[in-house]
TrEMBL record:
Signal peptide: none annotated. It comes from Algoriphagus namhaensis. The lineage of its organism: Bacteria, Pseudomonadati, Bacteroidota, Cytophagia, Cytophagales. It comes from the Bacteria. This is Large ribosomal subunit protein uL3. It holds the Pfam family Ribosomal_L3. SUPFAM superfamilies: Translation proteins (SSF50447). One of the primary rRNA binding proteins, it binds directly near the 3'-end of the 23S rRNA, where it nucleates assembly of the 50S subunit. Belongs to the universal ribosomal protein uL3 family. One of its GO terms (cellular component) is ribosome. Keywords: Ribonucleoprotein, Ribosomal protein, RNA-binding, rRNA-binding.
């Protein structure tokens, strides 16, 4: 597995060769800096740690400042570890090396996008779980169109089962969307155009895996 860190710019749409209007997402992918290289001998597994996004040194913990100085780079805002980096990148993942999007992906590749979904706050069961609501006002129903309905039995089990779908905080979860096609690469601007939607708001960090 190989990948890169990016930032979601926003959504747009393009026309495909057969005339279809395809919704797509523009991502600022890289360039990322290799901040640590792990191997089986010292760490028990092989992995590459990448850093992306500038961060002020005064807002960076001192241990991280030393960590980034060891790699010969400035403090980074987002650090992600990629296990089992592809074999063809063995010579390019030295400490302090720069990884660009065009070195990892080519047009037509399928990628998985990982991000944090938008937080919705406290929501009811209709929005949170897709409940249909009570429907028509019959059998004495009044002002209960979006209520959950019955949540348990009476004398037995005299409690509500764990895992019952109820209202609560929605969003803000780690979400992975798989098999998004890379439609276009703009290497001069470090931009990727992928099909479909990517979790998270604009300017949020996104992890792209191949």
């Amino acid at each position: 597995m190989s990948g890169i860190i990016g930032k979601k710019v926003g959504m747009t749409s393009i026309f495909s060769a057969d005339g279809r209007n395809v919704a797509c997402t523009l991502i600022e992918a890289g360039p990322c800096v290799v901040t640590q290289v792990k191997n089986v001998e010292t760490d028990g597994y092989s992995a590459v740690q990448l850093g992306f996004g500038e961060r002020k040194e005064k807002n960076t913990p001192k241990p991280l400042i030393g960590h980034f100085k060891k790699a010969g780079t400035t403090p980074k805002h987002k650090v992600v570890e990629f296990r089992d980096f592809r074999v063809e990148f063995e010579g390019q993942v030295n400490l302090g090396a720069t990884v660009k999007s065009e070195e990892v992906f080519v047009e037509g590749d399928f990628v998985d996008a990982i991000g944090t979904s938008k937080g919705k706050g406290f929501q009811g069961v209709v929005k949170r779980h897709g409940f249909g609501g009570v429907g028509g006002q019959t059998h004495g129903q009044h002002n209960r169109q979006r209520h959950p309905g019955s949540i348990g039995a009476c004398s037995w089990p005299s409690r509500v089962f764990k895992g019952m779908r109820m209202a609560g905080r929605t969003g803000g979860d780690r979400v992975k969307v798989i098999n998004l096609r890379v439609l276009k690469i703009y290497p001069e601007k470090n931009l990727l155009l992928v099909s479909g939607s990517v979790p998270g708001p604009k300017n949020s960090y996104v992890i792209l895996e191949k």
